[in-house]
Amino acid sequence: MKIYTRTGDEGKTGLIGGRVSKDDVRVEAYGTVDELNAFVGEAVIRLDAKRDEDLIQDLTEIQHELFDAGADLAQAGKSRQYKVSAEMVTRLEEWIDKYDAECKPLQRFILPGGSPGASALHVCRVVARRAERRVVTLCAQQETNDEVRRYLNRLSDFFFTAARAVNARANVSDVEYKRGSQVFRQADAGKNEKDKQ
Asked: Which GO terms describe its biological process (predicted)?
């Protein structure tokens, strides 16, 4: 099988249900999800294989689910069978709670950084937010799986929490934003940090 097909040389690509321009909103949405998947792979190789074994397993599962999300977004035809479900969103929330329990309470906004693994996960967080924005645009214009939008929203929260957990495991402090005062009360620290994104 040849890798190149020449079928996209005129600026068109195939969807499940037809061909569209490569800058179509649907292609932009699943292309950004694919980009996110690549960054997750980059984050995995920056983690400690032993210390972060549980997180690596979760991230590998997320990579499979991002592939599922891309397949859902690529469906433009009338017959649709989606893969991303509400159960996946619920499970992400459980993982967020699990990793958040390893972190100190937030007092200030934090900057992306700390350890190499945490920095890579913060990149995943911001790319997940961009993917979510692309899917919001798609949902407003065309029919698609709304669960993908919810999944990406929760996924960015997961990456934020996982980045903090990786720093905690490495005994590296989060990089606090110093140009402001303490903005979080202990009870609502995580909620407010997520809401700002």
From this structure: cobalamin biosynthetic process
Could you write out the three-class secondary structure of 27-39? Answer: HHHHHHHHHHHHH
Confidence at residue 12, expressed as pLDDT on a 0 to 100 scale: 52
* Helix spans in the chain (H): 25-45, 53-73, 86-100, 116-141, 146-169, 189-195
* 160 within 8 A of 52, measured Cβ to Cβ: no
pTM across the whole model:
0.85
Higher pLDDT, 76 or 152: 152
CA torsion angle for 42, 43, 45, 49 (degrees, to 10)? Answer: -160
- Can you read off the two tokens belonging to residue 128? 């997940």
Residue 65's alpha-carbon distances to 4, 18, 87, 173, in angstroms, are 26, 23, 12, 31
Determine whether domain 12-76+83-195 maps to CATH 2.60.40.10: no
In this structure, what token pair is assigned to residue 21? 């321009």
Longest dimension (CA), the chain: 59
Model confidence over 78-132: pLDDT tens digits?
667 899 999 999 999 999 999 999 999 988 889 999 999 999 999 999 999 999 9
Stated length of the chain: 197
